[in-house]
Design goal:
single chain; alpha+beta; Alpha-Beta Plaits; four-stranded antiparallel sheet; 2 helices; elongated
Length: 112
């Protein structure tokens, strides 16, 4: 099993969610996060003064999937979240050693 973590622009969430549903994803965790990458944030003007906003609002998706679904999940996220502009986000894939469904005690892929 793998956990696919995707950091995307907030307005792309519905498109990404729909694309993931099409490849068979039935559940995910969505978190509102803030951060910055290579650009280091963005400049904004407030009451005539320019300042840098260090942390840009993003949405983080956590999806645990069987190994055979990883590539289709990555492709769905990449295609639906892409705008072609700076700040489209990142996708990370992390190994998952174990998963347990608390209610039933199911383990491994049965738990996801």
């Amino acid at each position: 099993m793998k956990k696919v973590e995707a950091i995307i622009k907030p307005f792309k969430l519905d498109e990404v969610k729909d694309a993931l549903a099409e490849v068979g994803i039935q559940g995910m965790t969505v978190t509102e996060v803030k951060g910055f990458g290579r650009t280091g944030g963005k400049k904004e003007v407030y009451r005539g003064s320019a300042y840098v906003v260090d942390f840009v609002p993003k949405v983080k998706l956590d999806i645990v999937v069987p190994d055979h679904m990883v590539q289709s999940v990555i492709d769905a996220i990449e295609k639906s979240a892409k705008t072609g502009r700076i700040g489209d986000g990142k996708i990370f894939v992390v190994p998952v050693d174990e998963a347990v469904r608390i209610r039933t005690g199911e383990r491994g892929e049965d738990a996801i």
